[in-house]
Every structure is written in structure tokens, then in C-alpha cells.
Amino acid sequence: MSKSPFTVNKGVAILIVLLLSFSVSKGQLADTLKDVKVKAKKKLQISNDERINTYAPGQKITSIDSITLRQYQFQSVANMLAQQSPVFIKTYGINGLATLSFRGASAAQSQVYWNGVPLQNAAMGISDVSLLPVALMNKINLVYGSSSAMWGSGNVGGALVVENEKPYFDTSNVFHHSVYAVAGSFSQYQLGLRSGFSTSKWYVAVNGFGQSAKNNFSYIDGAIKRNMSNASLSSGVGLLQVAYKANSKNVISLTGWYQQYYREVPRALFESQSVKNQRDESLRLLADWNRTDKSVHTSVKLSYIRDYMRYQDTLALLNTKNASNQLYTEAAMRFAVGTRHRIMIMAPISVQWVDSASISQTNTQNRYALAANYLYSNPSGKLKVALNLRGEAVDDNSYLLPGGNIAYDITSWLTLKANAQKTYRVPTLNELYYNPGGNRNLLPESGWSTDAGYVFHSNSANRVVLNHELSVFNRVIDNWIVWFGGAIWTPHNIATVHSRGVETDNKLTVGFGKLNLHLAVNTSYVLSTTVSSYISGDGSIGKQIPYAPRYNGQINIGFNFRQLYFNYNHTYTGYRFITVDESQWLMPYNTGNVQVLYTLPLGSNNLQCTAQCNNVWNKQYQVVNGRPMPGINWLVGIRYSIN
Amino acid sequence: MGRTYFQNIISGILVVSLLSACVKDKPTEPDTKPPATTGPSGNVYTVCEGSLGNGNSTLYLYNYKTATDHGNIYETVNTGSKLGDVFQSIRRIGDKWFLCINNSDKVLVLDSTRKQIGIINIPKPRYILPVSDTKAYVSTLFSNKVYIINPQSMSVSGTIDMPYQNPEFMVMRNNKAYISTWDTACGNIYTVDIATDKVQDAIAINNRAPHGLAVDKDGNLWVVSGNVYKGKQAAITQLNGKDEVMKTFYFSAKSDVIKPVFNLAKDVLYFIQVDYNGGTDNNGIYRMSINDTQLPKAPFVAAQKFQYFWALGVEPQSGNIYVGDPKGFIQKGVVTVYNAAGNQVNSFAVGVGPGSFYFE
After folding, report:
1. Pairwise CB contact (< 8 Å): A317 & B6
2. Looking at the predicted structure, is the pLDDT value of residue B25 above 90?
3. In whole angstroms, how far apart are CA B167 and each of A273, A314, B124, B162?
4. Which of A31, A122, B70, B74 might form a disulfide with B61, Cβ 3.0–4.6 angstroms?
């Protein structure tokens, strides 16, 4: 008898009930405030997470601005980051897995957080960012460099932090609704809606869409032009947020996110055919209590995440079903001591387990942590020093993770930054217990990560505004985990990997009345090389690790005039090595992409029209070996918003 | 003034950061085309499987008479065309080469200059057994079919339905084809009548999942079986000319035994034991006389920590033993040559995942 993919076993159910009981009995229903008056102040914050807003002044954090979010509102986070950030997105072609690589780190060392909750698959330790729709997100931040003391295991290269709209409460009973329709090349269609209301006590929002695509684009295979087959996609995504403001201090919010993607997996260039398909279902639940007293803010999070994946390939007699689960709870308190000191204490607990025939009996991983973050600001506010310390126990092992970062405003337009962190990543359930091949003797990857840089920002009130940020980083990780194998793949702690590099973010805007021109250039130079190995005669010494391009960069150039926004985006991605000894590689590629956005005001409502043309130069390229990417393609959408 | 000065500095840094190229991009090292050959030449072809899902298999050529090598010869001769994903085996029939590209579902046919002249579409091909000038068998993974091909017309002429899945290695003996079926439910090997292409006899081997076959100087058939990761222990079974079991050697539960070959005199059996977990126990090249009554305890060539071997062959001129180290299938492999005394006599680099040798 088949078991439902969302069946929760008895023990877990009891644990959920106990944790809920505990949380309720504490009666710490908290509040993040929220009156309309205060909202204006909150808009200055790039995140809802204080770890980003307050305790990382010396870290490089890139916030995706609202206009960029609107440009990519009908696409995945993977597409957006591939075009707009120096983070390398390793995408296995259309309908394929897409993972992050920050600063030469592996996918498992580049973490994703949703409203502060780790989102990576509990078994694999990675997140498929092609399944993260921009449409659901209100804020997206990229945190570069390690900050394991604040974020926990796996935060080695950096973190992607995605957040839904933070509930707000409005005494004037605000309603807003929008519907949208999208069509594009390769029979892409999408319909969606967003609706919500806010009163002085309640906030309710729903956000959902359905999409389908054939993805039957043409590509060049050797000298032959072919049409992609077995590449269709269909999905349904829904997000519900409900928040209740109990009183002036306490707010409770509940968020439920369910999505299902059915993807056919097209043939790679080296395959004669493909009948593979994959169904991904995710259920993500988050309950959040916030209480704000005069000087103390307390919060409790409780989250349950279940990712179910079914993969079928009848040609290889494969029909695998895996479900990974994570129960995450976090209690946090933050307060100020005088005007110069701020302290945040967190106690996250997570339990992860996997339901799979491929995982042997020991299939649970428990993590308990106590983390403290401290921020000192000098009287002038120019100097900010943050210290972080985290003690974390993972099953029977414990780790102490110190870190610190500093920012100093030399002038009103120039800030220096520096960050140093102990970093680590514990092996995932698959790495430990996958059958066959799991290795129970794996040690955590660990090391130190440092980075420093400066931020130049000219007066934003001027007609010409220049923002420039440069960061250099250095990271050495021991016990780097590498999968070895032919018939059976097994992970081993093989190597020490040294990553270092330089990143620049530059943006110039020039205003001529209602016409604003912009030019933005992001560059990234990453050397991520193996420096030592336990393998005799290892050819990887001194060589770049696979799928970590040394060079990549983006240019955005365009304008906005009244309600019209135009942007041309150009990306360059350098060589990606397939093997650890640089003996096989993929050629660099350029893509050009155009985005147009026009908003037509209709009284208090508006009609927003978007058009995107990706890969305008119709380049044939592969991000991952053998997986062709689409040539020139279009996506147009309209959104009608009622306010 | 000061602000402009700083802005100029920053602009300069920006330009430098954009234009600086600290490490040059990877140059291509051209491979040289090997000479065409029509017969025994001293050539040893190394089948480099590549790593599954990467489409990076290659064919390397080394000549032990001239000590010259040619890397990636298929791509070199065929102007950049890739072999495909998981190059399983190679076989010469007449003046043509037949290459089984397992995960690309094809058998590539090359002429004597190694130029591609045909493709035979067969799902998950593994090994080829020449039967006659106009017939050869191709075993396949994930099915119970053995495909019959015509090497002359380079086409499929029929199939043989085996009783179990995963027909694997095949040999000719007593004018019959012996076929192993690497299925954990299977405790037999099978003979096929090469005139009718029908399965004839099931021969019990006292173990499950047969996958490796080799014939000794007395015409006895040695069968390697087992699938350790599916709970079937490894064993070697010796069958006499009447297909009767002479003896069976059982390995310890964790031993994974693959790729048996005989020395030139065909009185010493070499095989590989593999430990994927980085250990050194039951890991290396082992050998035993056909007259031995127990399995060898010490390896002929011991694998080091994090190392295991994946290819094994015997050079027809000197009898030297060729051992392929895939180095985890994540980089170029190395072939090391040993004499019969176990001393290393040579070594050369090959492509990713050396899995077998073919001596011309």
C-alpha cells in the first residue's frame, strides 16, 4: 500500500504538538509592531531579519531592489540571480536542478533561508533555486561570505535569504488584489493572483499561480538542429499568510506554502533519448510569534518543511521516491543596552529525517544551537563592531563557532568593512547514510573565512549618483567533501580548498528630470583551488574546483522615464571545469537580456505590463556539460492591481 | 576637489578590477592523430568511461612498442565530436571498431582510422561478442535483451530474450556463447546456440548475479558473480568443459570482485577487488593459480587509501599487467604497468575513468 508523501509519523506528530504546547504555554505572543506610521521607517530595512539589518555591518550584503524583483516577477529566483548577481547558478538545463555557488563554494556550502528558516533539502543539503518563484518573495538578499555563527552549519560561501511580505496592520482596512497573466516562447503560460487585506487586528494574504510550458526550443547538437523534447513543465504554487495582532505587543503569524512541480527532464546532448520525469512537492509551514516590549523583542518560530521528490526513468528502471523532513524551531530575544550596545540571543533546534529506501536506518540528524550576537556602535555611529558566537551540537558532536565583523564610516560616502568567521558544514544525511555509498566516517568541512572591502556611495540627492563596492575574500576549508566513484559514488574528506577573490558592484545613475539613466557593472574573480589532498598523485592540486567560474560579471544599462522602465542586461560567465584537474572544461558564454516594464495608472489601480527577451543574441551555450540552454525567448505579462 | 580625487581613484580601481586577468583561461592542447592500423601493432586502447552524467568519456591509445601515446583519439579524428556518456567497452571485428557507449544508448562504429562510419542504436549496450563475420552479440543493461548485430551492415538483425535482466559479459566456448546475466535473482549463466540465437542451457554457478567470465588454458570457464551492495556476496566459480561446477570460492561479505582476466599462459587468474569507502582491505589487484584451492590473501598490487582500481588487462607480447586507476572518476586516470613479478615497469596518463583495455 503506498504511503502518502505527506504522511507524518507518530513521533513527529507528538513532537509538533509538544512544541506547540510549549510555545503556547509560554504565552510569549510577540509583536513586531506595525502601524502605518511605523511602516515608513521599516521601509529602510532591507530585510525582516535582524541578523542582516543589525548584526552584519561588516559583511557584504546585496539586496535585490524592488524594480529588479518586478522585472523578474514571473520567473524563478535562479533566472534572476543568474542575470543579476555574481553568484554562479549551476543549472542543469531547462527543467533541471539549479543550485547556488557563492565565491567558489559548493552547492551544499551555499545556503537558502526562507523567513529565517533553513530551506535546503534535509537529505541533500542543497536547495533547487529553480523552484523558488520570485512572485512569492517580497525581499531577497544575498549575504556574501561565511557567517556560520549567525546562520549555522553550511553557511560557508554565503546565503540567499528570501522573505515574504511582512504582515502589517492598518486601521484604515487596506485591501489589495492583483491578477496576472503571462505568455511566452515555447508555450509558456502562467496565471496568478495575489490578494490581501489588512485591518488593525488581522493581516491575510494569498498568493498563487499555475504555469505550464512545453519548452520545445531548438538547439544545435553537433551540426544538427534539434527540437527539445520531453521538456514540459507544469506547476501550481500557493502561499497563505495570516497574522493576528493580539495587542500592541503581540503578533502571531502563520504562513503556509505549498507547491508542486512536474518536470520532464529532457535528454542531455550525450543521451539518445530521455523519458525521465520528476515531481517535486513541497509543504512549508511556519508559525511565528513576536512580542515587542519597550526594549526587548522576543520571538518564537516553529516550522515544518517536507520536500517530496519522485523521479522516474523507465529506461534505467528507476522509480525513486524520497521525502525529506525538517522540523525547525527557534527562540530569539534581542535588546539594547543603552544606545551603544545591542544583543541578540537565539536558540535554534532542528530535527531532520528522510523517508527513503536509499537511506539506511540511521536517518535522523538533530541540531541544537545557542547563538549570541552583539553589536557595538560608537557614539558618532560611524563605527560598528559585531561579534558572533555560536555553540552547536549535531547529534553527538559539538562545535564552537566564533565570528566578528566591523564597519567604519571614514566619511559620509566611504565605508570600510571587514569580516572574519569560523565556518563549517556538517555532512548531510545523504552523505552519511545514502545506500549505497554513504560514508558514516565523514568529518565536517571546516575552516576560516575572511573578507574586507569598502563601499563608496555618493549623495543620492545629486543628479549623478555613483555607488561602488569592492570586496576581497579569503577562505580555507579543510576536510572538503568530494564524491568519488564509478559504479558506487562515495563521499570522502579529501582536500583542503583555498578560495579567494575580488568582487565589485558598481552603479551609476544620472537624472535628467523625469528621465533617469543607469549603468551597473558587477564583476567577480574567484580562485578556488585545491591546495592539499589525501590522495597520492592527486591531479587536483593547484587547480580550480569544478563548476566555479573564475570570472563572471554582469552589466545593466537602461533608463526609466515616467512609468516606463527599460533595461539591457549582459552577462559573462567564464570557463567551468568539469574535472578537478582542469582536464575538461566548458567554454565561456555571454548572454544578453532585455527587460521592459510599463505601469499604467488607472485611478487608484494600475496595469503593469512587462516584456522580457532572454538571450537576445540567440547564443548556444551550456551552463552544465551536455545540457543546452534555450536560445532567444520571450516572456510577456500583464498584472492588474486593485488597491 | 577631494571628492573628485577619490572618485577618480575609485574609477581607476574599477577599471583595473574589470580588466585584470590574474589567471589565464585554459588553453587547448591539440592531440595528434594516431596512424591507421590493420593488425597487431603494439597498440593498447584504454576505454575511459568518463563519469556518469557528464558525457566525458574518451578513448586513449598507447603503443607499448614505441612508447608513444595519443589522447582522446575519437574526438581528435572526428573533429570535436564527443563519444558520449559511459564508454563501456570496445571490440574490433574485421577492419571496424565497435564502441559501446552505455548511457548514450549507442554502439559507435569506426573505421581503421578511427573515423566514425556508423551508429547502431541499442539501449544501454555493455559488451560485444563477435560470433562470425556477419554476426555479433551485444549485451545490455536494464533489460533482458541481447541484441544481434550485423557488423557488415552495422545494423540490428535481431534480439535474444534472456531469462534474467542485465546480460553482461559474454565469451565463446565450445562453439557456444556463454552469457552472464547480472541480476541478483539469477543463479545461472546461459548458453546460446549461435546458429539459432536461442538460449540453450542454464548452468548453475552456486551463487547469484554472474557478471564476469574468463576461459583458462584447459578450457575451463571461470565465473565471477555477486553484487555486494545488493546483499549478494562475491564468488568465483570454475566450470569444466561439461559445464559442471569444479569449485566455488566465496569472498568475504564486503569484497567486491570484478573484471577477471587470465595471464598469457592462461594459468593465473587476475581480478580486481574494490573498496569504494577509501579503505585498503580487500582492495587491489589479486591473482590466483588455476590450481589453487583457496583465494589469495595478499594482493598482487595493493590499493592505497582512497584508491581503487577499475581496469585490468594483460599485454599479449610481454604478459605485463595493465592496471587502471580512475582516481575517483573526477579527473584524468592513470594506467600503471607491472611485470609478472609485481614490479612497476611503466605508467601513463589517460582520460577520466579508465575501465578496460583492448590490445591490438
Report:
1. no
2. no
3. 21, 18, 11, 7
4. B70
Nine cell digits for residue B187? 543463479
Render the burial of A166-184: b for 16+ CB within 10 Å, e for the rest: bbbbbeeeeeeebebebeb
Cell of A314: 523507465
CATH number at residue B277: 2.130.10.10
- Helical H segments across chain B, by residue range: 2-19, 73-77
What is the rounded end-to-end Cα distance, in angstroms, of chain A?
A: 50
Which tens digit of pLDDT belongs to each residue from B116-146? 999 999 999 999 999 999 999 999 999 999 9
Indicate the residue of A272, A466, A588 with minimum beta-carbon distance to B121. A272
The residue count of chain B comes to: 360
Interatomic CA distance for residues A518 and A616, integer angstroms? 20
**Interface ipTM:** 0.88
**Band (A24; pLDDT cuts 50, 70, 90):** very low
Q: How many domains does chain B have?
A: 1
Antiparallel, parallel or unpaired: β A110-114 and A158-163: parallel
Q: What are the residues facing A387 on neighbouring strands? A: A374, A404
For residue B105, being part of any structural domain is answered with no
Residue in A with minimal Cα distance to B350: A583
Neighbours of B267 (CB within 10 A): 13
Give the three-state DSSP class for B291. Answer: coil
* Pairing verdict, β A397-409 and A296-313: unpaired
B276 is a domain residue: yes
A518-535 b/e with 16+ CB inside 10 Å = b? bebbbbbbbbbbbeebeb
Question: Which range of residues forms the domain containing residue B299?
Answer: 170-309
Statement: residue A409 has pLDDT above 60 = yes
Place of cell 540490428: B156
Total-model pTM: 0.89
Q: Backbone phi, then psi, for A553, in 5-degree steps?
A: -165, 160
Cell 576461459 belongs to which residue? Answer: B215
Q: Tell me if B26 and A574 make a contact (CB, 8 A cut-off).
A: no
Reference B160, options B135, B133, B187; nearest CA is B135
Nearest chain B Cα distance for residue A122, angstroms: 23
Contact A638, A73 (CB under 8 A): no
List the single residue in B with minimal CA-CA distance to A465. B7
Confirm if A603 and B351 have CB atoms less than 8 A apart.
no
Q: What digits encode the pLDDT tens for the residues B63-99?
A: 999 998 888 999 999 988 899 999 999 999 999 999 9
Burial label, A234 (beta-carbon count in 10 A; 0-12, 13-18, 19+): middle
Chain A residue whose CA is closest to B258:
A487
SS (H, E, C) A242-311: EEEECCCCEEEEEEEEEEEEEEEECCCCCCCCCCEEEEEEEEEEEEEEEEECCCEEEEEEEEEEEEEEEE
- Phi-psi region at B230: left, alpha or beta (left = phi > 0; alpha = psi -120 to 50): alpha
Nearest to B352 among A458, A553, A579 (CB): A579
Cα distance between residue A36 and residue A369, in whole Å: 36
Residue B341 lies in a domain: no
Q: How far is A355 from chain B (nearest CA, A)?
A: 19
Contacts across the A-B interface (CB distance below 8 Å) = 147
Asked if CATH classification 2.40.170.20 holds for the domain at A10-642, the reply, yes or no, is yes
Task: Map residue B13 onto helix, strand or coil.
Answer: helix
| B73 part of a folded domain | no
